[in-house]
Amino acid sequence: MAAFRRWRADRPFLGGLLLTLGGAEILLTQKASLKVVMHIGMQGLAGYLLPVLMVICGLLILFNPAQRLFYSILGVLFSLGSWITSNLGGFLIGLLLGVVGSCLAFGWLPDQEPRRPRKWFRRDRTRAKPVRLTRSVESVGRP
């Protein structure tokens, strides 16, 4: 279990997982059989192609986190494309999972220190002292 925790901490796990689940959900909500899709043509094929590519991008984010920026941008584009090609993006659920997962993967930063709570920043601030003007306001425009 500790090895899995270390592996998960070294990659954008939640982002890749959500993108993969979004693609899987869209695939599961497809109503047309593959025979009908092949008869329809490219529009029907795109309904299966984009969710498969979403799943692939999600898995690549999990197993190759060094290229997460490229895969997350592709994941957002594929998720938004599923709005047109496959049942409104899996009835919005798959689309939202894909977009949120891609955004989480895009924003993930490796080797980042934990954030401090805001109350610690308030203690560190010193009060700013008022600045004294050396020249009066009337003499500003005069030589």
UniProtKB/TrEMBL annotation:
Q: Where are the transmembrane segments?
A: 45-62, 69-85, 91-109
One Pfam match, given by its short name, reads: DUF6114
Q: Which UniProt keywords apply?
A: Membrane, Transmembrane, Transmembrane helix
Q: List, alphabetically, the InterPro entries matched.
A: DUF6114
Write down what this protein is called.
Integral membrane protein
Question: Which source organism?
Answer: Streptomyces liliiviolaceus
